[in-house]
């Protein structure tokens, strides 16, 4: 199964971001991808953290969700919509949610980011808990590829990457592919991005697809980029450093099965 990570440098205008996303998703579909994943905050990167509150949509209703459903249906492509803000009961907060659309346009899964990023290194300060309500459910979905192979896909978002227990739950549920749409800062990405992604692939003997924001944004933030696909042995199959791009790779079910038979580490868990 061919998969695609969509890298963007999203701005503040949702319509501009949608036009670019559509172009990149069309490129992925023409290349034969069956699944394409957008990065975190793909639909808008506000000038302030609070801006996401003003563009939050109710689950199942809104222009960003309509765009994702329509594009999936028109391109015949499974689309993981990176993240977008969805309303939640907590005043002054939203969920940072990843929605999955099947190739017929149905929304088949929703994951609300569980781990909320916080960083203060003197030069940069982030605290997602000020505007985001954490999710609580681990979510997978099943994707039947065109060759008849069934793929179980585990969802996660950005800062989740630092918490291996989440991915071990995906592995216990039979996940073959792990998705990590992200907007890693340049500072933390340069230090840890590839290291953590490859570790999650190796320890769970699973493919990893990580679409990212990659560049300088209107709000002054600089994201690391380096969207990539990684195989279950930790090999980076494809990546792109910066700028808007499509990263394509093949998931090979026979390769995955052979590695798990050769090194059945998932059956050796003690804790």
UniProtKB/TrEMBL annotation:
InterPro entries in UniProt: C-N_Hydrolase, C-N_Hydrolase_sf, Nit1/2_C-N_Hydrolase, UPF0012_CS
Limits of the CN hydrolase domain: 1-253
Domain of life: Bacteria
Protein keywords: Hydrolase
Kinase found in the keyword field: no
Gene3D superfamilies from the UniProt entry: Carbon-nitrogen hydrolase (3.60.110.10)
Single GO MF descriptor: hydrolase activity, acting on carbon-nitrogen (but not peptide) bonds, in linear amides
Pfam families, per the entry: CN_hydrolase (PF00795)
Record-stated family: Belongs to the carbon-nitrogen hydrolase superfamily. NIT1/NIT2 family.
Listed name of the protein: Nitrilase
Annotated organism of origin: Melaminivora alkalimesophila
């Amino acid at each position: 199964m061919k998969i695609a990570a969509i890298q963007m440098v999203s701005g503040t205008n949702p319509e501009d971001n949608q036009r670019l996303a559509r172009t990149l998703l069309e490129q992925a579909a023409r290349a034969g991808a069956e699944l394409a994943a957008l990065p975190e905050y793909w639909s808008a990167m506000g000038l302030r953290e609070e801006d996401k509150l003003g563009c939050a949509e109710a689950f199942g209703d809104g222009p960003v969700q309509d765009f994702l459903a329509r594009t999936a249906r028109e391109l015949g492509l499974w689309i993981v919509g990176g993240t977008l803000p969805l309303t939640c009961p907590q005043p002054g907060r939203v969920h940072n949610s990843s929605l999955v659309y099947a190739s017929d346009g149905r929304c088949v899964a929703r994951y609300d980011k569980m781990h909320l990023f916080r960083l203060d290194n003197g030069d940069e300060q982030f605290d997602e808990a000020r505007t985001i309500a954490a999710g609580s459910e681990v979510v997978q979905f099943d994707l039947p590829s065109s060759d008849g192979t069934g793929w179980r896909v585990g969802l996660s978002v950005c800062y989740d990457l630092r918490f291996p227990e989440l991915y071990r739950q995906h592995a216990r549920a039979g996940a073959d592919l792990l998705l990590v749409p992200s907007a890693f800062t340049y500072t933390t990405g340069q230090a840890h991005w590839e290291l953590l992604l490859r570790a999650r692939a190796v320890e769970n003997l699973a493919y990893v697809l990580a679409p990212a924001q990659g560049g300088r944004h209107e709000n002054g933030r600089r994201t690391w980029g380096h969207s990539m696909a990684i195989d279950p042995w930790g090999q980076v199959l494809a990546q792109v450093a910066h700028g808007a791009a499509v990263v394509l790779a093949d998931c090979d079910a026979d390769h995955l099965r052979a590695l798990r038979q050769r090194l059945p580490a998932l059956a050796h868990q003690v804790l």
